[in-house]
């Protein structure tokens, strides 16, 4: 065979192999992702300061802290200038991001919530953070394992976790005392919560023991705590998820517990929608003494209580109670992504800012100012964090939860494309169960069937 | 007068008085019910959150706390939102009235091929609710880079089939001898339109303006999707935003509602007559 | 000739706006309805013919949305007209200070859908809301979170917000009834109620018909109050058609499904208008 023909043959074989790889399901995503490079050295080529924009949805004290960190970064060097844009809520940010994908109006860093992960992957519009880590030989050894695991799919880290939170138990120590319970021994298991509620109600300390916000993550978090996955295919991480995995004995136990608590008037259903803090207000009004809510609300809660509005409440924070098993609490919050559409200089600049935000001192300052937990252990050595956690140990609870338990596929967390649709199916099922008398088994089965329809439809549309 | 008739007259008078009192009682009860939400909003905007939550509830602020208003205005961005609303609403109103005047004048005073068809096209647009096309319009505005801009908020609403219809009717009532006289005096279409027709149609123009202002001011769906930061956000969406971010500070939310309603209240008091005309246009036909 | 050019020039600006923002998106709905649209731009969409239309129209979610919307219309439109008429009749008399009452009854015109919804949302707060307290539901499942009462609450908010407009409309209608008709009826021995039925109502029929048509169309397009009060829940019990469309586009990124529902909404509103116009033409009595 002639030289020319054999090299043509080789080229054809290579081309065929590449094409085959691209056609394999899941393979396309991975191959595509691995081929996106992070131009970490591009900053050196820039002639002046590179200006970048970051979209975020932090509010109030959290926004102030973020702005302070940004100002520090901008003042400390002249190669990069960061401008923050508050896009109000996670939901709005995602919508704006999606619109930007077709109009071209995109930021250089975008903060998107945890559940957006598969969507971001499917949009094929970001530079995976893992590429930057690799190109820059960035050391992530002390980072909290579970937090990095969450944002890693198919071996690629897509986003850099920034504001990490998870659900904790908030309870009213004064109500515990009134009911003859030890205010420093909060309940750990679901059975504990139930017996504590019984005492609270019978002693008349509060109207009901526990307020339930109809949050879909009850099912997600408690299944993770029990060591069970939420969707199939390795929680959506080995391959794209094609069905939910919560219609199981473990899932039914969770639903049954919720249902019986409300039926027996031990718990109060304070309803959906997002942004609802009625479960907390119920504690303030004496209608309940316990609830589970995100640790990210701790700052606001302490602020409100500090204003003296609820003199009958002394808040205690404890690890989230739940089913027992080989599991742990799931990562919550949001991560930072770098859109591909930015120029190489801006991508490099974005990576510089992200590295700054990851500095142990930045993470410590961020955590102290907001109540979010640091994403790396080195931050715990920072004096400002040490002092803050010594003063208000309640803030430490969420971090301890994150590093305790087992790190496995269940606690890595589910990765779902149509996350919103699946969550809506679960919330609707919870509503039907708790307010319209549907039994837990059917409610859960309905939720699973609706969720599976949504997943099928999404998977078909994403090609 | 004989005694019986006098007594009967007195009884009849008393019955009338009772009926009168009864009417006032009924009217007052209904007025209280109708006014209650607005009343409680104002009251609660002057209380502290713990006072609002107190039971039994206070229905009158004995010690008004005005702090919620500056809070809502600055931290709550209501000042910015009001400005945006005023700009956007005025632009829509002026645009709609202007374009309607232009189109209606063509339909009423000019002859051109396809006039009837085009008028039907204008009428047809009234059959397509905005809610049927809003998401594609969102895509269009986004692709034009007009999200979060006044332009994006105003552009889709510059033309109105209803306005053209209304003004064409008003223009058609201009007496033909007036038009002939103007033509003989050398008045072109433009001059005739602005010097004769529009002044004559002033009540309709005023009514249309009020109608356009009111509908644009109250818009919620479009500003919700066309804006997602506070730069161009209008007051209606801003109110919902304020409610979300106020959390426990209900007094700030209510202060925001009051602030958002004040411009409208002032406008309505001043333009009452035009308002009624605008709202009832088409309703009470002989 | 010059007239023609001028004519076209004068309607052109409006036509341009209509073209871009009315006709183009209207037509695009049909294209979208026939494709399974990707959740992100840049990914291909797939032509599926009428499959998606069939799927959506037969889905239980769509049926529920339709049912909820119709319930909402039936709850708000007749009630609004009746209450507006009642207030207008009561305020139509020559009593001293009646002007104050008339102003109060029309006052809700100064509120917007958003303002009214924010007010009622806060008044119905399950923990600290005043209305919740008066309904005896303090500390229990909120009115807006109870699938049995949520739609009712949304309807009440809407009725209240529309009351001013309804009152003004009915008052204007009443003023259009000539006094000599009443006198003639009185001479014929008709009392208050009979006068109302046989004189006022027939004369009001154009106004009533207008209020019913416009009111129903507005009710079918309701969105703001749902977004602020319940976001379509609980369990989709307030998921009216427009809200469902909004969620499909802005929460789930599914434009194809949204387009099918939008076309359905258009058909409904269109048919409604045609039916009511036809029906009303026969029933509306003419003034001699």
Note down, in words, how this protein is organized.
The complex is a heterotrimer of chains A (463), B (286) and C (288). By secondary structure, chain A is α/β, with parallel strands linked by helices. Chain A has helices spanning 3-23, 27-35, 60-76, 90-103, 117-123, 129-136, 145-150, 173-178, 190-202, 217-225, 232-235, 249-263, 278-284, 298-306, 344-358, 360-370, 383-391, 396-403, 409-412, 419-435, 440-462, and strands at 50-56, 80-86, 109-113, 126-127, 152-153, 156-157, 160-165, 167-172, 210-212, 267-269, 290-294, 315-319, 332-339. Chain A contains 21 helices and 13 strands. In chain A, the strands form three sheets. In chain A, strands 1, 2, 3, 4, 7 and 13 form a six-stranded mixed sheet that branches. With 286 residues, chain B is mainly alpha-helical. Chain B has two domains: 3-68, no CATH class; 76-280, Orthogonal Bundle (MetI-like fold). Chain B has 15 helices and no strands. The radius of gyration of chain B is 26 Å and the shape is flat. The mean pLDDT of chain B is 89. Chain C is mainly α. Chain C has one domain (56-283): Orthogonal Bundle (MetI-like fold). Chain C contains twelve helices and two strands, in the order αββααααααααααα. In chain C, α3 (60-90) runs antiparallel to α9 and α7 packs across α9 (192-220). The longest helix of chain C has 32 residues, at 2-33. Chains in contact: A-B, A-C, B-C. Chain A binds chain B through residues 59-60, 85-89, 92-93, 95-96, 99, 102-105, 275, 277, 281, 285, 300, 304, 309, and chain B through 49-50, 53, 138-139, 142-145, 147, 228-230, 241, 244-245, 247-248.
């Amino acid at each position: 065979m002639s030289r020319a023909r054999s090299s043509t043959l080789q080229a054809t074989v290579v081309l065929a192999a590449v094409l085959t790889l691209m056609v394999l399901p899941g393979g396309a995503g991975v191959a595509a992702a691995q081929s996106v490079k992070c131009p970490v050295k591009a900053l050196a080529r820039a002639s002046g300061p590179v200006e970048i924009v970051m979209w975020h949805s932090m509010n109030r004290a959290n926004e102030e802290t973020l702005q302070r960190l940004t100002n520090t970064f901008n003042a400390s060097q002249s190669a990069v200038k960061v401008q923050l844009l508050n896009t109000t809520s996670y939901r709005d940010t995602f919508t704006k991001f999606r619109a930007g994908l077709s109009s071209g109006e995109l930021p250089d860093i975008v903060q998107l919530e945890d559940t957006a992960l598969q969507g971001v992957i499917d949009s094929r519009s970001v530079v995976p953070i893992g590429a930057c880590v690799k190109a820059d030989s960035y050391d992530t050894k002390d980072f909290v394992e579970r937090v990095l695991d969450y944002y890693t799919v198919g071996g690629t880290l897509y986003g850099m976790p920034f504001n990490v939170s998870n659900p904790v138990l908030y309870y009213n120590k004064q109500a515990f005392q009134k009911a003859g319970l030890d205010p420093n021994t909060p309940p750990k298991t679901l059975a504990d919560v139930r017996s504590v509620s019984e005492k609270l109600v019978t002693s008349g300390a509060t109207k009901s023991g526990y307020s339930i916000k109809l949050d879909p993550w009850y099912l997600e978090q408690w299944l993770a705590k029990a060591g069970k996955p939420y969707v199939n295919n390795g929680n959506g991480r080995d391959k794209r998820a094609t069905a939910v995995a919560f219609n199981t004995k473990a899932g039914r136990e969770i639903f049954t517990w919720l249902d019986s608590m409300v039926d027996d008037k031990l718990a109060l259903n304070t309803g959906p929608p997002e942004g609802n803090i009625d479960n907390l207000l119920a504690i303030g009004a004496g209608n309940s003494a316990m609830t589970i809510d995100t640790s990210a609300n701790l700052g606001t809660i302490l602020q409100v209580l500090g204003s003296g509005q609820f003199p009958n409440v002394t808040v205690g924070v404890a690890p989230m109670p739940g089913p027992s098993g080989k599991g742990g609490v799931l990562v919550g919050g949001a991560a930072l992504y770098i859109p591909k559409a930015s120029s190489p200089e801006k991508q490099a600049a974005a990576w510089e800012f992200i590295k700054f935000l990851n500095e142990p001192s930045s993470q410590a300052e961020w955590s102290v100012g907001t109540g979010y937990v640091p994403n790396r252990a080195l931050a715990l050595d920072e004096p400002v964090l040490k002092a803050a956690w010594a003063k208000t140990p309640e803030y430490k609870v969420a971090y301890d939860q994150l590093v305790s338990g087992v790190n496995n596929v269940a606690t890595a967390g589910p990765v779902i494309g149509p996350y919103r649709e699946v969550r809506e199916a679960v919330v609707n099922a919870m509503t039907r169960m708790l307010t319209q008398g549907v039994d837990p088994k059917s409610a859960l089965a309905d939720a699973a069937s609706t969720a599976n329809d949504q997943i099928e439809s999404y998977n078909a549309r994403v090609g | 007068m004989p005694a019986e008739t006098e007594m009967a007259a007195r009884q009849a008078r008393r019955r009338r008085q009772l009926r009168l009192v009864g009417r006032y009682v009924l009217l007052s009860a209904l007025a209280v019910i109708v006014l209650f939400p607005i009343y409680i909003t104002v009251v609660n905007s002057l209380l502290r959150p713990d006072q609002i939550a107190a039971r039994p509830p206070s229905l009158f602020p004995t010690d008004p706390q005005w702090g919620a208003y500056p809070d809502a205005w600055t931290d709550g961005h209501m000042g910015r939102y009001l400005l945006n609303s005023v700009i956007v609403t005025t632009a829509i109103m002026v645009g709609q009235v202007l374009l309607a005047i232009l189109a209606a004048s063509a339909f009423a005073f000019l002859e051109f091929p396809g006039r009837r068809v085009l008028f039907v096209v204008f009428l047809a647009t009234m059959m397509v609710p905005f809610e049927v096309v809003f998401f594609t319009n969102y895509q269009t505005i986004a692709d034009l880079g007009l999200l979060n801009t006044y332009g994006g908020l105003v552009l889709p609403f510059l033309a109105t089939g209803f306005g053209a219809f209304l003004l064409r009717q008003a223009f058609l009532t201009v007496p033909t001898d007036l038009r002939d006289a103007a033509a003989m005096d050398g008045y072109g279409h433009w001059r005739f339109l602005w010097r004769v027709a529009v002044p004559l149609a002033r009540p309709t123009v005023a009514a249309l303006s009020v109608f356009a202002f009111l509908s644009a001011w109250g818009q919620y769906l479009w500003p919700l999707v066309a804006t997602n930061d506070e730069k161009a956000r209008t007051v209606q969406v801003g109110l919902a935003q304020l409610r979300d971010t106020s959390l426990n500070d209900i007094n700030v939310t209510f202060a925001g509602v009051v602030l958002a309603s004040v411009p409208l209240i002032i406008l309505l008091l001043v333009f009452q007559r035009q308002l009624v005309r605008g709202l009832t246009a088409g309703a009470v036909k002989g | 000739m010059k007239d023609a050019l001028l004519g076209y020039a004068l309607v052109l600006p409006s036509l341009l706006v209509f073209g871009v923002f009315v006709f183009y998106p209207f037509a695009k709905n049909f294209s979208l309805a026939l494709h399974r649209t990707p959740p992100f731009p840049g990914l291909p969409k797939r032509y599926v013919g009428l499959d998606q239309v069939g799927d959506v129209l037969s889905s239980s979610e769509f049926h529920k949305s339709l049912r909820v919307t119709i319930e909402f219309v039936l709850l708000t439109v007749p009630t609004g007209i009746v209450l507006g008429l009642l207030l207008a009749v009561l305020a139509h008399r020559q009593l001293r200070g009646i002007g104050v009452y008339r102003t109060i009854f029309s006052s809700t015109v100064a509120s917007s859908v958003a303002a009214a919804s924010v007010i009622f949302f806060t008044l119905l707060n399950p923990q600290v809301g005043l209305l919740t307290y008066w309904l005896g539901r303090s500390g229990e499942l909120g009115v807006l979170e109870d699938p049995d009462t949520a739609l009712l609450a949304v309807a009440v908010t809407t009725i209240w917000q529309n009351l001013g407009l309804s009152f003004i409309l009915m008052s204007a209608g009443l003023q259009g009834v000539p006094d000599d008709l009443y006198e003639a009826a009185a001479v014929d021995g008709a009392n208050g109620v009979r006068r109302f039925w046989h004189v006022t109502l027939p004369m009001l029929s154009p106004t009533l018909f207008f209020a019913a048509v416009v009111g129903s169309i507005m009710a079918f397009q309701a969105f703001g109050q749902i977004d602020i009060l319940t976001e379509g829940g609980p369990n989709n019990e307030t998921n009216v058609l427009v809200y469902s469309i909004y969620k499909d586009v802005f929460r789930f990124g599914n434009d194809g499904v949204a387009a099918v529902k939008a076309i359905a909404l258009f058909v409904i509103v269109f048919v409604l208008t045609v039916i009511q116009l036809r029906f009303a033409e026969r029933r509306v009595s003419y003034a001699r």
